[in-house]
Amino acid sequence: MTLARVFEKVTNGEDVPVEFAAYDGSRAGDPDADVRIEIRTPYAVSYLVRSPGLLGLARAYVAGHIEVHGDMYTTLSRLSHTLRGLSVTDRLKVLASIVDDPLLRAAAATRMPPPSVEVRGAGRLRRHSKKRDAQAISHHYDVSNTFYAWVLGPSMAYTCALYPTERATLEEAQSAKFDLVARKLGLEPGMRLLDVGCGWGGMVVHAAREYGVKALGVTLSKQQAEWAQKTIAEQGLTALAEVRHLDYRDVPEAGFDAISSIGLTEHIGQANVPGYFQFLHRKLRPGGRLLNHCITRADNTQQSIRPDGFINRYVFPDGELEGPGFLLTQMNDQGFEIRHEENLREHYALTLRDWCRNLDEHWAEAVGEVGAETARVWRLYMAGCRLGFEQNMVQLHQILGVKLPVSQESGMPLRATWGV
């Protein structure tokens, strides 16, 4: 059996419009397809045989032993149902197919090292100490501000945007997201906002510039903090806005009128969620509001990020996703009255669509900036995540809560003023 035929078999790709081509000249699949998977070296077989499930294919792609010609999202969409079921049996099929080929047999017997960008020991001893959290955040966010600017666009917002229409631009959608958060929090001039896990300062800048709010953002990424402070100075907002390179647990100030947490909860670990909401509750004044915006599992029973999977090894070390019901319960149990909740998963799929397009448009520059392996990780992970949101494997929830005063008056309008 030819090598291209082996990969067609193992991905059950006979009936999908994908072509398989191999370095030995063999071809299989649909020759007219606009997507072609190229097996560039025999060592791709080693990754597939030795690594569990999809991790082997991901390692082979990141290391450059497999190439995808055509749109990555389209490729994953066409193969998603079959790829999701890759098992030990599938790897045994590969072994059975290569026993008669000395070169492939030797390649399969070679223990190839994981790509250099893989985090060693990912998912072990998940303690979420301040030091370990700082290392995990640095791995993902201190890649290159230039690289992120190409992918994220001028807003430098690395969280789900809000699309007023499907034709809205990424920048319009990110601005709409920050404004939605501001309106849910009821921001007004003179208020004090704490933005935990503030990234490159998008929410901090928006709140200060558009609402006259005195905003403090904190991030564990040194590169993000430096970028944000530079942006604040350039926009003449230093009297109102500040971003610190700091763990949110070390913020000394209290009595904030509002707190926004946009994309932080995914990093703190399930065991720490109660303490996280308890800490934010203490930082608010009575009557203050919290808006928690984060990726979740589809429900409380679905598995979180696998500690031995691709996302944990390459993208978000120590990341964990909780179910929306769990987060609502913990937020409520720590003293917040829940006032509003919504799922924006379709908006995240659109956001990822635009990020993927940006990366493709700057592919050569991105490879030159961060290296081929890192660029490949991003191409694969963002396309896969887009598919995950579309297929309801993951969701994006915003939960709004109020720290009630002794009077129990919420200070909320009788009907939502931000639109639904």
From TrEMBL:
CDD domains: AdoMet_MTases
Keyword check for Methyltransferase: yes
Entry-linked SUPFAM superfamilies: S-adenosyl-L-methionine-dependent methyltransferases
Listed transmembrane segments: none
Keyword Transferase: yes
InterPro entries: CFA/CMAS, CMAS, SAM-dependent_MTases_sf
Pfam families: CMAS (PF02353)
Top-rank lineage group of the source organism: Bacteria
Any one Gene Ontology BP term: methylation
Name this polypeptide is given: Class I SAM-dependent methyltransferase
The organism's taxonomic lineage, starting at the top: Bacteria, Bacillati, Actinomycetota, Actinomycetes, Streptosporangiales
